[in-house]
Amino acid sequence: MKRILFVMLSAMLLASCVVTETQPPAPVTPVEPKKKPEPSVRPSEKVPQPPKIQSINWDSIVQPLADQMINANGVEAGKLLLVDSVKNNTNGSLRTLKATDVITSVISNKQVFQVVPKSQVHLARQALGLSSEDSLGSRSKSIGLARYLNADYVLYSAVSNNHGQRELEMQLMLVKTGEILWSGRGDVN
């Protein structure tokens, strides 16, 4: 019992001891920041010109193709048409969304078809998990999208390189069967 009491008292005594050890602060030596030499700009150096973005007059390409399409055999006026986004099958950069807008506008102005509004196409693409800039678009995806929207026709368009010349190819397809009712090509300048 004496041992337990001795151990408890020693523990209390040791616990109450506070060892304060003060260390001198570490020496601080100020260092001047090094100045980086400024790059010398020679007035004779020329800044390279950025590449010029080629402006394409999509309206002049699409107008004659739209005229051919509305006069094709088997095309019925007043039916619902889905204008699918233009696919870029070239190795260059094209403003395909602008091309799609021009095609939609030209066909709407002809007042032969009821064109599916852009907002409905966007919502349908989201519902089906398709990106609005889907560069891997295919005819089957276009027809699937048109079926989802209950369209009668789908207009599939693609720009491709043909022996160094870019061409816009448009195909009007019947949604029920996938049959190509009309096909046309126009040079993209």
From TrEMBL:
**BP GO annotations:** peptidoglycan biosynthetic process; regulation of cell shape
Q: Report residue spans for region: Disordered.
A: 24-51
User: What's its membrane topology?
Assistant: Lipid-anchor
Q: Where is the signal peptide?
A: 1-20
Is Signal a UniProt keyword of this protein?
yes
Taken from the UniProt entry, a GO cellular component term is:
periplasmic side of cell outer membrane
- Report if keyword Signal is assigned: yes
Q: Which Gene3D superfamilies match?
A: ABC-type transport auxiliary lipoprotein component
Q: Cellular location of this protein?
A: Cell outer membrane
Among Pfam families, the record links this protein to:
LpoB (PF13036)
Q: What is its main location?
A: membrane
| Annotated GO MF terms | enzyme regulator activity
Q: Which InterPro entries match?
A: LpoB
Specify residue ranges for compositional bias: Basic and acidic residues.
32-45
**Keywords, comma-separated and alphabetical:** Cell outer membrane, Cell shape, Lipoprotein, Membrane, Palmitate, Peptidoglycan synthesis, Signal
Q: Which HAMAP family match?
A: LpoB (MF_01889)
* Family membership noted in the UniProt record: Belongs to the LpoB family.
Q: How does it assemble?
A: Interacts with PBP1b.
Q: What is this protein called?
A: Penicillin-binding protein activator LpoB
